[in-house]
User: What shape does this take?
Amino acid sequence: MSNLWMRKYEFICKGIFTDPLTVKFSIPFSDTSDTTATSIKVYNLKDETIKEITVRERAILNAGYVADYGAIFTGYLKNIQTQWEGVDKVTTFTCADAPTAYLKETFKKTYAKNTKASLIAREVAAFAGLKIGSIALPVDFTYRRGKTLNGKPKTILEGLAKDCKAKMHITKGALYMVHKNAGIGTGIEISKETGLINHPERIEDEVTETVPSPAVSNSKTTATKQKSEGKDTSDKKKDSKTKKSATTKKTTTRTGYKLKMLLNPRIDTDVIILLKSKTVTGTFRVEKGEHKGDSSGNEWFTECEVYPV
Assistant: This one.
């Protein structure tokens, strides 16, 4: 922790903005498919510099300490606005971690029989301008009768993830479609020595899932089994003799922890950490959080919620 004292930061968007310019930021992250708005403020830029910046520019924010420094945001500029706050001219860069095409463009294509969801996901991601972070599907669903698509990439990818019993999120411009409990890495140590502030705060969260009903007919059980094996049964809706599998809602309570630490660029969605504190020790997965910073003030922290692996 002795090395975590000299801050370092660099915002890249057309130009490179770093010390001595004041930079303030709020960078949220989570394992949901929703895109999050990121706010990065740069103080007292020259008018000619601001005029050169246009929306959809690539935006990268590197931050941390001299001894531990890296990208905490990679995405695209959605909006730029400048206003005066007292004697300071503040330019606010509103960014998103996915290209505009992910939400705005329309993907149209008809796939042949027996096409797998993983192939479709990669093609839709490429169309939307997304890199592939990881596509490791619990079930690589097979569309036995083919599939016709005509919609926004976000909506299509969410549907594919649901069919494959996977979660989906966009992190630093990359698509992740993985098991709901999947993690990244082998474990980053988080302790007082590496920047942990205060004791972990215990949190509880209710999770509701749709599960097969205990009492189902043989035909329904067969259909459910076929779907779990990645076979397309959705087209059987056309057959009036085939009924949908009965389902029910199941709610469980899980326990996790809220952590606060000195700004750590390695903390991000799904990262595996090794937590070591006086009250809690164990292996956890980061589910969501936020990097917060003010290069001219005291704020330079990472906050996150973690759950046992």
Q: What stands out?
A: Helices lie at 47-51, 101-104, 117-128, 153-163, 218-228. The radius of gyration is 23 Å. Residues 115 and 143 are 5 Å apart (CA to CA). The chain is about 15% helix and 50% strand.
